[in-house]
Amino acid sequence: MTVTLWQRARPLHAFGEIWCQELTDLRQLAGLRARLRTSMTGSPVVERPERDHWSERLVLIADELTSNALRHGGAPVAAVLGRRGDDWLIAVRDAAASVAPTPAQGRDPGLGGFGLYLVADLSSSHGWYVEPGTKTAWAVVDGSS
Fold first, then answer.
1. Where along the sequence do coiled-coil regions lie (predicted)?
2. Which terminal Cβ of the chain has fewer Cβ within 10 Å, N or C?
């Protein structure tokens, strides 16, 4: 039995965009993580780990999706933060419209490539879709949990 972990789908609900950030290099990920934390908790660093664990899930998801886009996608790469009530959306767009997000299979875990499994485990929903010339991978985290 084959299970499709990453299905082609858009988020189920519309999210209000908080900001969009273009990235061109992996070195920009630290700034993206700090911006996410500040947007969600008011601080660029983890101040209350017992309370802010939900936001760190979204930070880790954003890091995985954005690093994949920068490594395997194509420029331009953009990360979008959105919110709908307690739900937070991270959507990462790249120019590799013909390359679907594909979790690693049959590979030694020491070789990496398992970030998409992590994203699936940490999010309440996730997927990807294509628009002319772009692919967007997205995930949602519930901020109330």
1. none
2. N
